[in-house]
TrEMBL record:
PROSITE patterns per record: WNT1
Function: Ligand for members of the frizzled family of seven transmembrane receptors.
Signal peptide bounds: 1-20
Annotated protein name in UniProt: Protein Wnt
Pfam families: wnt
SMART domains according to UniProt: WNT1
Taxonomic source organism: Mesorhabditis belari
CC terms in the record's Gene Ontology section: extracellular space
Biological process, per Gene Ontology: canonical Wnt signaling pathway; cell fate commitment; cell morphogenesis; neuron differentiation
Lineage of origin: Eukaryota, Metazoa, Ecdysozoa, Nematoda, Chromadorea
Amino acid sequence: MRRLKILFLLLFLLVDVIEAVGWLSVGLSSANLGKRSAGTFCKELKTLNRRQQRFCRKNVILMDSIRRGAQSSYTECQYQFHKRRWNCTLLDPLTHKVIGDVLLLEGTRESAFVHAISAAGVAYRVTRDCAKGLNDACGCDQTRHEIPETTRETSLHSIVPRESKSEFVSEGCSDNVEYGNMISRDFVDAAEKAHGKQKNSTSAQAEQTIINLHNNRAGRQALKTSLRRECKCHGISGSCEMKTCWDALPSFREIGSIIKDKFDGATEVQVVLGEDRPHLKSKHNQFRRHTHADLVFSSPSPDYCEADPVRGILGTKGRECNATSIGTDGCDLLCCMRGFERRVTVVQEKCNCKFVYCCKVVCEQCTRSIERFYCL
Ligand SMILES: *[C@@H]1O[C@H](CO)[C@@H](O)[C@H](O)[C@H]1NC(C)=O
Ligand SMILES: *[C@@H]1O[C@H](CO)[C@@H](O)[C@H](O)[C@H]1NC(C)=O
Ligand SMILES: *[C@@H]1O[C@H](CO)[C@@H](O)[C@H](O)[C@H]1NC(C)=O
């Protein structure tokens, strides 16, 4: 049996989302259970392992948030990598079949990113949906106001100066990242943990599991550290005698960029079997030690230049490139110095539009040529 990875699972959910769009648009109000029982619904998610099936039955009302978390992870991955040779195409757009699976089993930097963004995406969506009141299972973070100011994370202090005495501050609806992260831990990490326990899982697989779990956690850590204090004033004509404050997550785009920075600074590690339990050690000792917040990988990435269907590498032939950019989207780098071709398309456009009294708009037809470059 092929080893089940969280990625397949998330992508499977994603395919489900794509298929669900049809009946969503018909006007059904919810994208989750429908008329099915929890048992039937969860069974249909065939790639879930036993632990995840149990999770699904117990937390079936969260499954819709989890799906949409998976979907935003994939969208964000494609956005963050759209200018690079590897552009995070994990599903065939036509068949919705998973491609790139072998590659993601190889423990590369790209695999680290996908794990971190997936774990973060699920935690993010669950957290936001809870704060919006979409899930009966959860709500706002009600513990915030019980926590003495001094024990809060330091990041909160720097943003909001201590309240002056004249102000009355009430606690608003804080994003409950602890809850979202807990769900992500239970559900996303479950896919990995099951493998570690398989009797005949090879040591390479066990090592990859440790690395994947580390990266899942690093992704969730990005949510915790990006919580910001936001306040809203209520008072006579803009005064701030009274205010409501809460801790809010930034946009998921911002989370994606944070994790992309972690990708750029990822550490190459090896798994060391210590006396008590295995741990990760940097392969290049001259660099600083990685922390829980950093992404780690165990094998160097291929160059992604030439197509290799067996490994799920699409290659860059036919990709659009930028002839003037010296970045990763520049034709030299993106096309791996193979060269590129220029294609000019002529488009007809309306132009010089004028308003004629009364009452129509008259335009001229203009032609414009658009120059584009594609890798050979
Ligand atoms: C585990 O080992 C058994 C026998 O040793 C074998 O038949 C089975 O295919 C193995 N399973 C996996 C997942 O490698
Ligand atoms: C990603 O790369 C593949 C393979 O080169 C290409 O077919 C696809 O159009 C690219 N996707 C985007 C969004 O650029
Ligand atoms: C190409 O790259 C240049 C320099 O980075 C940039 O100014 C320009 O907008 C890019 N062109 C396109 C079509 O993206």
